[in-house]
Amino acid sequence: MQRHKLNTRVVIAASNLLYQSGIQSLIKHIGVQPEYIILKSIQNNELTAHTNAEYLILDQKLLTKPRNRHFKQIISQFKGEILVIGSDKTSPEFHSHILLPMDSKNTIVEKIQNFFTLQNIKDKTENEWILSTREIDVLQKVAKGLSNKEISEQLFISINTVITHRKNITEKLGIKTISGLTVYALMNNLINPEEITA
């Protein structure tokens, strides 16, 4: 199943309110609308109750020393994707997804987009689309920058049908913005970058 649905669960483990609200703002910016679980600590097995969530965004400062051992415990408990906010990328134990303090805004947005589409790419190999064939057709046209009228003409369907398909796509994926849908289409190889109109 695809992961950008309205019931996607994201655990944000960060004691810093700025991290919590900033990460939520960046996730919203890329068009994902998940259910958030906020943890201010990961001591005393706080994470255990939320191991069925799809994504974990973890402030590295919450890890106890030795950090590598604590992180291994988290990996063994949490089966979803993990994104670390921190500066320690010297250890091979740390997950490949890491936001660094020196990253530019564009780099951070790109890393978050990649983080949220990784599971979609894995799922696609199982050919388990939650979108119908016609919804994929409409999504491709939306991502290419076509208007409802142009999509209607190219697919030989009414504008009302296009609007209905777009509503269904948004509900199924939990992505409300055209830019978010475009990123989704790109990351799932539904369109090529050169097909996007400026």
Search tags:
single chain; Arc Repressor Mutant, subunit A; alpha/beta; 2 domains; 198 residues; 5-stranded parallel sheet; 7 helices; disordered N terminus; Rossmann fold
If you had to describe this structure to a student in words, what would you say it looks like?
This protein has about 200 residues and is an alpha/beta fold. It folds into 2 domains: about 10-125, Rossmann fold (3-Layer(aba) Sandwich); about 135-195, Winged helix-like DNA-binding domain superfamily/Winged helix DNA-binding domain (Arc Repressor Mutant, subunit A, Orthogonal Bundle). About 45% of the residues lie in helices and about 10% in strands. The chain has helices at about 15-30, 65-75, 105-125, 135-145, 150-155, 160-175, 180-185, and strands spanning about 10-15, 35-40, 55-60, 80-85, 100. Strands 2-1-3-4-5 form a 5-stranded parallel beta sheet, covered by helices on one side. Helix 1 links the parallel strand 1 and strand 2 (about 35-40). It is elongated, with a radius of gyration of 18 Å.
